Amino acid sequence: MPHVQGVRHRDVVVRGLRLHVAEAGEPGGDVVVLQHGWPQHWWEWRDLIPALAERYRVICPDLRGFGWSDPPPDGDYRKESMVDDLLGLLAELGIDRIQYVGHDWGAFLGYILGARPEHPVERMVLMSAPPPWLPPGRPDLKRVARFAYQIPIIAPAPAAFRTKVSETLLRAGRADEGFTDEELEVFLAPLRLPHGPSATAGLYRTFQFREVLPIMRGKYKERRLTVPLRLLIGKKDLLYDPALEELLRSNADQVEVEAIDSASHFIAEERPELVLDRVLDFLGTPAGSRTPA
C-alpha cells in the first residue's frame, strides 16, 4: 500500500463486496469523493489529498476489482453497478451529501450518478472523459476512432500482455516528463494480482459488448445532468474534442469546460496545482473549514 501523509485506510462491505477506501481529513467534515479511473487506484489523487483534507473529509474508493478492492464474483463491471457501489458505500458510511471529483472512468461514473433522479451530489469536477450521451444523427467516425486504444485491452491475451498494455497507456498518457518507474510500479502491482487482468478485460468488454449499443440507442438521451459541472480536459488527450462543451450542454444544465494546453490524459498528476486550484474554486469553501496553506 503506498503512503500519503494523513491518509487512513479501511475496508467496507458494500452489497456483499469488499471495497477498499482511502480517507483523509476530519471524519465529521463535508465530504468530497475522489474517484479514480483506469488503470489506476486511489493513489492517483496523492497530490490533491493533503490540501483538500484541510477543507473536506476526503474519500477515495477503489473501484470493484481495482486497487485493493475485491473483484465481483459474477464478473459484473457494468458502470451502473459501480455507481450503485458508490451509493452503497455512502450509505454504509452515513453520508447523504457529497462533492464529487472523477477522472477517466471515475468521470464517466460521475455523469451517470449526477443524472440519476435522486443523487447526493452538490457539485462535480470531472476530468478526461466524454459523457454517456451522443449528439443526434449518425455516429461521428472520428469520435469513434478515439476509442481504438481499447481494442488490445478487450482482445484475448495472456495476463502479462494486458499488464504491458496498461503500462504503455500510462506512459503515453502524460504530456510532461511522465511517470517514474516507481510510480508505474505502484499502479501496475495491483493489476498483477490474480484477478487484475480479468478486471481490466471485464471493465472494457462490458463497455464494448453490453453498454455501447444502448448508449448509441439513446439510453441517456433523456437523462439530464442537473448538478453544476466543471470539466477539465487536456488538449493533448486522445479523448479531447473541441465540441465537448456543446455536447455536454445538450444534456446538462450548468457546464464549464476548460481545455488545458500542454496537458494530456492524466492531468491530476501532470498539472496538480492547476487541478487543485480549479477544484477548490469550483467546490467552494465549506463552513468552518481552514484555508489550505
Question: Please, could you describe this protein's structure?
Answer:
With 293 residues, the protein is α/β, with parallel strands linked by helices. It has one domain: Rossmann fold, CATH 3.40.50. The chain has helices spanning 49-52, 79-93, 105-114, 141-145, 151-154, 159-172, 181-191, 196-216, 244-249, 267-270, 272-283, and strands at residues 8-14, 17-24, 31-35, 57-61, 98-103, 121-127, 229-234, 255-260. The chain has an 8-stranded mixed beta sheet, with helices on both faces. Helix 9 (244-249) links the parallel strand 7 (229-234) and strand 8 (255-260). Helix 2 (79-93) crosses helix 3 (105-114) and helix 6 (159-172) packs across helix 8 (196-216). It is globular, with a radius of gyration of 18 Å. It starts with 7 loop residues before the first strand and ends in a 10-residue tail after the last helix. 43% of the residues are buried.
